[in-house]
Amino acid sequence: LQLSDPANVAPGTTTCGPFGEDTIYTTANGNTVSGTRPTFGINFNSNPYMKTAASSSFNSLQVTLQHTEKYLNFLIGYTFEKSLDNGSDSFDATNPFNPGQTRALSSFDVPHNLVASYTVQLPFDHFIGGGDLAKRFTAGWELSGVSTFAKGEPVSLNENDDNSLLGAFNANVDVPSYANNGSTLYVNKNPRKGLPFFNPNYFQPEPLGQVGNAMRRYFSGPGLDNYDMALLKSTAITESTKLQFRAEAFNVFNHAQFKNPNGLVNNPGVGGFGYVTSANDPRIMQVALKFLF
Asked: pLDDT tens digits, residue range 63-102?
């Protein structure tokens, strides 16, 4: 960090800054410093000290309710959980100055998750009269579906401008700092309005030479409210064969299922830090005809 001060380097030479780990610096008294990576200096493109050590905890309440009868079957499952760790992404590096600060919500943490699946036999043949020919059209109707109501996964806060001067900008060490400017971390429940999902002014880039003090994951992104449904009609041809028609719809009510907002603090502006820019698939429908034997 001392080499980032122009007074500590020779006049007209480079000062230490982000992405300068492999730069040769000349101090004010004429000495040279071959990069800021210890031990091997600039002889290697990367010189990390790595240890496969992590810790995690998972606590949950899991409840299921199942019902089975001739005309109605359903299964409802609910999970209330909290998962904490310091390495649930593909590669999470630990804050070398304060390892405890790295411990946060797991990237897959979903505190509330309710899923209901059901199958309803539609007894049209019992309410509409007719002989065997009529029952070919009125019997065998079935409605099924899966409904999911879940809170969103946590928003991952990160920074890739190497302000920490650690040279670990691809390992999720760098995180922003709290701005401490009196603003609040509001959460916008309706990203359709073109507003950020959370207040980006609540955070600021980490100070030069320091790792930011914000927790990397501690609040949830947009939740899920999704319905998949299918309408089936099975018609017996013989004792061992039947023809089945299926009409299926995913996200049948076409709800906007938003993905997590941008958590990169050094990507400011509309569409950047704090903004939701993508969503899951809209309503998708398909039909099929199956011959079962």
From this structure: 999 999 989 999 999 999 999 998 776 666 788 778 888 8
pTM of the model: 0.82
Give alpha helix (H) positions in the chain: 99-102, 124-127, 132-138
d(CA 174, CA 157): 9
Of 29, 49, 53, 30, nearest to 38 (Cα)? 49
User: Can you read off the two tokens belonging to residue 155?
Assistant: 């928003």
Q: Is 99 helix (H, G, I), strand (E, B) or coil?
A: helix
Burial of 173 (0-12, 13-18, 19+ CB in 10 A): buried
CA neighbor of 154 nearest in space, from 273, 270, 260, 280: 260
Query: What are the φ and ψ backbone dihedral angles of 10, each rounded to 5 degrees?
Result: -65, 145
3-state DSSP helix/strand/coil percent for the chain, to nearest 5?
A: 10, 35, 55
